[in-house]
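Lecture 7 notes: from sequence to structure.
We start with the chain below.
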Amino acid sequence: MTSRTTATSRRAKVRAARLNGVDAVEVSDDGLLLTVTFLGKAPRGLGPENVRIDGGRRVTGITAVDVSVEREEDPELDDRLYVTLDRAGDTSRYLLSLVEADPYGRPGTEPYRGFDQRYHRAHFGFHPDRPTPFDHHRDDHAEQARPDFPDTPVIDYTARDYDSVRKLLLDRLALTTPDWVERSPADLGVTLVELLAYAGDRIGYQQDAVATEAYLDTARRRVSVRRHVRLVDYPMHDGCAARAYVTVETADDHTLAPGTYRFASVDVRDLNRHDHERPGTVIGDDELADLDERGAAVEVFEPVVAADPLELRVAHNAIRLWTWGGEVRALPRGATSATLRDEWRDPETCRERRLELEPGDLLLLEEVKGARTGTPGDADPAHRQAVRLTSVTPGVDRIEDQPVLEVTWAAEDALRFPLRLTTRGGPDCLPVEDVTLARGNVVLVDHGRTLHGLRETVTVPPVPAVLAPCGPSACGCPDGFGGGGRASAPARLITSLTDKAERGVPLTADDIRDLHDVVGEPATTRAGLGLGAGQRQHDHVVPGTAPAQATALRTLLAQSAHPGIRPRFRPVLGHAPVTQAVPFPDPRTVSAGQAERIAAIPGRVRQRLVELWRSARDRDGLGGDEIAELAVVYGLKVLDRTELRRHPVRALRELLHRTDHLLAAKLRRIEILAARARAGTVLDENVVWEIEQSWGPAYAAGLHPGDPVLRGSATGALTQDPRRALPAVRLLRDTPHDEEIWEPRRDLLASGPRDRHFVGELEDDGRLALRFGDGRNGARPAPGTRLTARYRLGGGTAGNVGAEAITHLVVRLPGDHKHHDGHKHHDDHKHHYDHKHHYDREIPPVTAVRNPLPATGGTEPEPVEQVRRLAPLEARRTRLRAVTADDYAALASALPGVQRAAAEIRWTGSLQEAHVAIDAHGTGTPSGELLATVAQSLEAYRRIGHDLVVGPARLVPLDIALTVCARPGHRHGQILADLYRALGTGRLPGGRLGAFHPDALTFGEPVRLSRLVAVAAAVPGVDDVRVTRLRRLFEPDRGELADGLLRLGPLEIATCDNDPDRPENGRLSISLDLGGAR
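Predicted structure tokens for the same chain:
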């Protein structure tokens, strides 16, 4: 490597003066040979005594042992000297000098004769490539000779506000321009300083704001907190709208079209009673708007499913329940069915029924008379419950010749209380009927009013007009805007029009239109050019003078060549608060209902075969419609081969036995569709059509995703999770024929490039901002697109009105010209109309509107401080995977219908199995449907490598014997009855559970002798209790009685039904020592 001097000018002077010097020193790889290059020719007579090497930290005193000179014949080339050393040096810097020898023949200190006094030496290093923190080329003498410059002024980086930045700038200017001492606010320099200080203050504020919003603990904006907690899967909610059930009574059959009706709760107590009349049951939009403007407390409720018409039937106002001649006196707690009394429209023909209930309709069961007195004033308002019908079966009571309707509802809607149907009351204790009535014409509504009138539109900002760049060039890019051959077409057009205007020729309307076609109308208008109002052939250019037009064209050229930053499209809706509503129906509920109905098709086919077999047997043959029905399921070839027409009974019996074989392909398809629906996929109309074509219309009924029967239970409709709520906003493209609709989502993580989704984010001021996709996660709105926003206002706890508060039906009455927002009406709901129905346009004959149950579910937006407190721990509270046995048990226990669950993981020899035992509510044995539901739900959480086995709990029957000593004065029969009841499986007076009620015991809970004694001793009349036998039934005694404890396994539950018909479920023997008892 080479170490060279840096004074190149002096090196040239040395060569010109014919002096000699050292130009460079190179070190060999082994460090024992130095190659010295001269500034010219090497002198003669050089020896080792003329080479001096100084320096080194660990290796010093290096000497030359031999030298040799390589002389160049060419006078323009320099000679070289090769110096052999006695040893290599260390990593420090060394100095080689060519000097005169001293009297002792050793290297001296005087420069060698003929050498410049500065170039007779050179620095070098033995290890120049080794990493070192030092600079090998540093010239210590040059550093010492460097002049002292003044220190750089210290910048105060804590200066963030206006005053401190202004002082910092003035202090800096005092150093750089000491002659400028003016500090008057009118001075131009001070004005510029203050302008820069203002800009610095704004920038500092923005930096501080960004730094503040960067962390959850310091973020102040609600949107920032929402996005922070989304990273840890905490869905921050913005509130939720309340829901309620509204019943409508009508004087005549009537149908209201979708979107033309809503309901209102109006409180006029704060108004002057002399200035208004009490509003009627049916009010118009104008009257509602007037009440709202005058200060009345108005809360509007709209149907949750806006596309449903409201079909009002007189027969559904109050439906009597059939008691079968007084045999059924009450509907017990937990009932899921009832019999409704129907009537014939024409008693003579007995064909058409008055009740038009269908599966999926809502029914309200209400106690209208006191259960004990039979008077309406004593009716319990808490005994009201809404149910959604799952099946409707018409029938006839042959004894009374009375048409009836058998209706059922889901287990989730099971009655929470008993309902009396008949009682005795009055002074004479006479029978009182119709204690409980059923009501139809029920609508599910939620809080919030739709904004009508003037449309609120948002426009997507246009893309800045950018001129096409010029083509590539080997010698650089010529001026693309000067009219050269490589300029883009927009640039040439703008340049030519600019030259035209500068020559004093005004632009024409056609020139402006050409600009619109090239760079776009928004960019042209933004630059100051446009067309004035008027007919197209008489449009005039604005501005009208040529100089002003030339200036605008130069502005357009600059804006197009250097476009600004594209503005972010995040519009904010103009009204607040926007309704937040949970989507209804829940897609998971719809898909679960479809899966259940599809899985039931094979069973329904077999049941239908049995019905047809009985019908053919009784009336000797099948009808044409019945044969066509079987042809769809089995095919004509199968029917011909079985000779269905000649021998229907035998053929139907054969079809029944061979159904699995004949329909194997169809049954596999049914299993696939059912599994897809169980996984959460909502089957669309194409699948419904497939079922209809392959099985028949009867089996496809109730499978359409919009069918009301798939909307779930009435109880579940009122149970809302605010974290799943979405803003009630729809965006429509503002074109007369385009049906492009943008829909809200919680986030855009699952949205694709073509999904027209957006996210509604609640700002701190309560207004809703809309965030769109970037083209990868969610579609990006096209620049320049105009979107019309349709949304609802309302929500929160204001919608939690009490029972009987919603008493008005709001419709569009003749003569109404505006809605509640005061704007002229536009028919925004015409797209909802279904031409298959005939909708009445006159004033509806509604006589009463009420909500028998209070509205529930209204929730305010989640506070930011609460989110900060709960979000960091969300990952610990929410189980996303089942790894341990406790995970499986906890996830199964959280499912509806499951009271408790236990699990254990076993090794089978080849893999691990997770065994989950289920204890159902109210019964010790869960149904097959519940076990299938649990298995399907746990499948999503199951750990890879675990096989899942779900089954009922293992019931352990007990054998218990007690000896009880009774107190004197008590009847032994009553004592025994109370003991068996207290230690039984039923419910005690006051709602208490028996000792062995299924809900009183859990997995692995041991049976303690002390508990048995305590329960028995609490029975009135019991003086002493002794347990004489405690063991598992049919097993020997293992010391349980001596230990006072009977232990159970983790998946076992004790049972003792003491049922003579089922002795295998436990036995309880009580021996009563009469003592003084009678």
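Points to note: Confidence is low (pLDDT under 50) at residues 1-6, 473-486, 818-836. The CA atoms of residues 251 and 845 lie 5 Å apart.
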